[in-house]
Write a structure and sequence with these properties.
Length: 108
């Protein structure tokens, strides 16, 4: 059911009226590992994209959106508007990504 929750970065959903339920979020934190760190160290010398980190951040974004949808579903929402991402490092070797927005319920 959570995968059916509409998530949009816009404030309005064209053609839909809704009531605001409240703030909703999904968060994940992942740690780097020795193999990623070794590869990143080599890439920092020669330059270029660090694909292992890009993959980790993409996975983190996907997980945070899935958790946002689950949270919204548990609140009885049909959609999330004004979705945004925020991210940051924790203790230098962990990356946290949060997806947040406003849970809404459609009015017929």
């Amino acid at each position: 059911m959570a995968e059916q929750i509409l998530v949009t970065t816009t404030e309005n959903i064209p053609g839909r009226k809704y009531e605001i339920i409240g703030e909703v979020f999904g968060v994940t934190t992942q740690s780097k590992n020795a193999i990623r760190d070794f590869g990143a160290g080599l890439k920092s010398i020669v330059g270029g994209e660090i694909k292992a980190y890009t993959s980790m951040l993409t996975e983190s974004r996907d997980q945070s959106i899935a958790r946002l949808r689950q949270n919204a579903s548990e609140m009885g929402a049909n959609a999330v508007v004004m979705m945004r991402f925020d991210s940051g490092s924790i203790a230098g070797d962990m990356q946290s990504v949060v997806a947040y927005g406003t849970a809404v319920k459609f009015i017929d």
